[in-house]
Amino acid sequence: MSHDMFGALQSFTLASGATSRYYALSALERENPRLSRLPVSIRIVLESLLRNCDGHKITPHHVRELANWQPHAPRSAEIPFIAGRIVLQDFTGVPLLCDLAAMRDTAVRFGKDPKIVEPRVPVALVVDHSVQVDHAQSADALDLNMKLEFRRNAERYRFVKWGMQAFDTFSVVPPGIGIVHQVNLEYLARGILHKDGVAYPDTLVGTDSHTTMINALGVVGWGVGGIEAEAGMLGQPLYLLTPDVVGVHLHGRLSEGCTATDLVLHITERLRLAQVVGKFVEFFGDGAASLAVPDRATLANMAPEYGATMGFFPVDEATVAYLSATGREEADIDAFASYFKAQGLFGIPRTGEIDYSAVIDFDLASVRPSVAGPKRPQDRIALPELGRTFEHLLQLPLSAGGYGMTEHSPGQRHPLPEQAGGDIGHGDVLIAAITSCTNTSNPGVMLAAGLLARKAVALGLTVNARVKTSLAPGSRVVSNYLERAGLLGDLETLGFNVVAYGCTTCIGNSGPLLPGLEDAIARHDLVCAAVLSGNRNFEARIHPAIKANFLMSPPLVVALAIAGNVDIDLTREALGTDRAGSSVMLADIWPSSHEIGAALADATDAETYRTLYRDFATGNPLWNAIPSVIGTTYAWTPSTYISAPPFFDAFVPELPGVDDIRDARALALFGDSVTTDHISPAGSIDENSPAGAWLRENGVGKTDFNSYGSRRGNHEVMVRGTFANVRIRNLMLAPAADGARIEGGLTCHQPGGEILPIYDAAGRYQAAGTPTLIFAGAEYGTGSSRDWAAKGTRLLGVRAVVAVSFERIHRSNLVGMGVLPLQFKDGDSAASLGIVGDERFDIPDLSGELHPQQDVVLHVTRPDGSRYAVGLRLRADTPVEIDYLRHGGILPFVLRELLGLV
Questions:
Q1: Which of 63, 71, 196, 236 is most buried per CB count within 10 Å?
Q2: Tens digit of pLDDT for each residue in 387-407?
Q3: Is 532 a residue whose pLDDT tops 80?
């Protein structure tokens, strides 16, 4: 950081009397006196540009351009952002580590030192996504699930341990500690970073879309794909279009009985309608200042669900208090508060102090108890409407987004096999999970769940045996304070035993249902339900057999587990009966804010945080028993978990450029809201799928299939699982006799129309040298930022995805893998143009000079020989993204730079 092109390097004084250096934004006020009216999030990004301005990757022009940010200006300029650190979770971190290992192999092949491939910023990998809820509702569930996790993932964990010793700036938080975002919030984040005697704000990107949870601490950060994160690790700026910043003015107070979860479901619904996709959201006003940091974290976590790049809360006294309460060092807290005060960034803005691109007014008092679902997190349902909404959707046709149960008889039950006992019907709750960083990081809602459980147990309420209940705290701190408050035992009495400290049900690691249930669901074509305190509920995400998934606060998860069915109005109908046979209403056991506040004292012991985060290895014999592998390069051995990725097999020094697309075929044709859950392999592996067949061929029994997520380090499994989701609907397939769209990863191979798994059809096209395209509707790629959604697309031979619109991270990931994201123009779509998938396609003029958002032409030839052309826009949005496409992707681009070839 020897450069100081604006004379901004100054000193500030800490409360302790010590001094430190920093790059003062005030140095830019000479040119822009309105700098203090810029959104706080923009000013923190501006500090990164100012501090890293070297005249090469970041130039004075970049700094001045952002310093002159205008709230309503057209957005065409790119920001080269350098994050202070990077956070990974293991589902994305392990394949990223595979890529780094393969890049080192390539460096050796070209006669270079493999250590040229080395993270340039601190990287933390939190192993949290690999545990499944195989065991639940027992005192030994946690121990049994962890033992299974280590048995299944020993190969992966050996590889992770190799990475710990091979890379100097790569650290690991081992399994059994907590969920990456909660660990980041409670431990990894320090608020302020130091390098070469200079203090600067903590900033980061993470390979999970919910990285935004850290925005609650005033930390600028967001989710990126593993592909982008890898480039950031290797010293590349992350390029983003200068964003609009939407200010959300919070005022008023939450009403009695409403939770932070209810608030975030309202905000998610409201901001989705406001179309904040790709924008920064910054909360301000007295209502924002009144929220505790855990409540802010709940709102920030859900930024991907409302579509924003960030959900940002500026730093204030509540932030400082949270850092103190969670055991941070006093010197760090002093530096944090002193820095933000010196920089003029301390305090949540009030009305009129900041110039935002738009302002959305939200009254906290308008929030009412709610759930969201059954297929999308933005589809909020007021709690009294849950039963009526479910009944409506049950009978609504499939074509209208319902379940098509037109012959449904309300209240109809079906007997279960003897080993399962009882009966089953539509709407039955089969999974009730307190899980996911969104809510388990919030002591208020977790203690509310425990208090509700205490009252329910005291009255003799129980949970039906068919409901698989589980508690997966986001860190060990949670179970600690629940136990100290005397509430963990009550949750356990209702079956909510601790099953893991990691991300479980919310990402599909829900494990098996009770025996006999899946057969009964399939036999009677039942729409059963999962209730969870998560942030994602897309189709087939939670469990492939469960079609209706509802998000809600932890206490509502407990309540609906007791009720046993979602076809209910919890404000008017009884949850159950007490020991005397009297009806018990939800209001009878709902904890008051006073009761929750009294219990919160048990959740704010700083020494507990320090103790539990002090030494990860202590008391973790399973992790300690994993053998370490030594060396700067990895000795690849045959494995169905870890394999050398093929992305560098054909790597050459020369720039490959972009070829025209000639005589292409459609591999699939999708509608709106196809998520990365639909595209990227996730959850369990079907033994009859291409991936399952490959595993069997390689000697893996079904009981050892594990999950797609755990096998992300093996491209053979992942490419076979791309577009293999059991709920994906390829519109190239003719509807069934009842008009319903056929579900599953199938397509029509052309010419001829033979129906094949998408993987098999892609293989035939590649063998014949035929390029392929994917067609899709609006919001293509929404959901988790899974890099395999783009990597798998590339390995299937897809040259371009043509969609009505793209989700931000997935669009960027496609570019990062050298796949062209092309967007319809002027209201066009595949449907409006009559594209059905039997056509041939040409996109010429790609081999010439490309530029950002260039217009290109798609030529369509129907089977009868008739032709027409339609204009598309190339959604490579910045000059560097054009470079990535010319290099064949971001990884070859970075590698050529490291090798000195560009």
A1: 63
A2: 999 999 999 998 888 998 887
A3: yes
pLDDT of residue 398: 85
What's 186's DSSP letter?
Answer: I
Name residues whose C-beta falls within 8 Å of residue 769's C-beta, 6 or more positions apart in sequence. Answer: none
Separation between Cα atoms, residue 442 and residue 445, nearest integer Å: 6
Residue 209 φ/ψ, nearest 5 degrees: -60, -25
Edge-to-edge strands of the sheet including 380-382?
380-382, 370-372, 548-551, 529-532, 429-434, 468-471
H or E element that contains 104: helix 90-109
Which DSSP helix (H) or strand (E) runs through 350?
Answer: none
Distances (CA, A) of 651 to 521, 633, 655, 887, 891: 49, 18, 10, 10, 10
Cβ contact 217:189 at 8 Å: yes
Confidence of residue 738 (pLDDT cuts 50, 70, 90): low
Q: At what angle do helices 317-325 and 330-342 cross, to 10 degrees?
A: 170
Which of 301, 311, 314, 312 is closest to 271 using CA atoms? 311
- Which residues lie closer than 8 Å to 36 by C-beta, 6 or more apart? 29, 344
DSSP for 519-540 reads HHHHHHT---EEEES-S---TT
Q: At residue 360, what is the residue type?
A: I
CA distances from 409 to 425, 528, 564 (A): 10, 15, 18
Highest mean pLDDT among 410-419, 614-623, 744-753, 764-773: 764-773
Q: Which residues sit opposite 199 in a β-bridge?
A: 194
409 contact partners, CB below 8 Å, separation of at least 6: none
CA distance 280 to 265: 18
- The number of helices, as runs of H, and strands, as runs of E, in the chain is 33, 34
Domains of the chain with bracketed CATH: 1-238 (3.30.499.10), 370-606 (3.30.499.10), 655-677+730-898 (3.20.19.10), 681-721 (no CATH)
The Cα 566–Cα 548 span in angstroms is 9
Closest CA to 250 of 369, 354, 361, 368: 361
Question: CA distances (Å), 567 to each of 225, 506, 564, in order?
Answer: 38, 22, 9
Q: What is the DSSP string of 550-571?
A: EE--HHHHHHHHHH-BSSS-TT
Type of residue numbered 75: R
How far is the C-alpha of 146 from the C-alpha of 166, rounded, in Å? 26
Between 87 and 516, the higher pLDDT residue: 87
Amino acid at 443: P
The Cα–Cα gap between 776 and 88 comes to: 29
Do 707 and 640 meet the contact criterion of CB atoms below 8 Å apart? no
Q: How many CB atoms are located within 10 Å of the residue 879 CB?
A: 13
pLDDT at 411 over 90: no
**Following CA atoms 477, 482, 483, 485 in sequence, which dihedral angle do they give, to the nearest 10 degrees?**
120
- State how far the Cα of 634 lies from the Cα of 501, in Å rounded to an integer: 29
As a whole number of angstroms, the distance between CA 809 and CA 224 comes to 6
Cβ-based neighbours of 625, under 8 Å, separated by 6 or more: none
pLDDT for 497: 98
CB 460 within 8 A of CB 578: yes
Going by C-beta distance under 8 Å and a sequence separation of 6 or more, which residues neighbour residue 151?
none
List Cα–Cα distances, 205 to 192, 213, 374, in angstroms.
Answer: 15, 11, 30
Amino acid identity for residue 38 in this structure: L
pLDDT tens digits, residue range 130-159? 899 999 999 999 999 999 999 989 999 999
As a whole-number percent, the residues of the chain with pLDDT over 70 amount to: 99
Q: Which residue has the tokens 């065991």?
A: 135
Which residues have C-beta within 8 Å of that of residue 776, sequence separation ≥ 6?
A: 669, 670, 671, 674, 801, 802, 803, 804, 830
**What is the residue-wise DSSP string for 794-822?**
HHTTEEEEEES-B-HHHHHHHHHTTPEEE
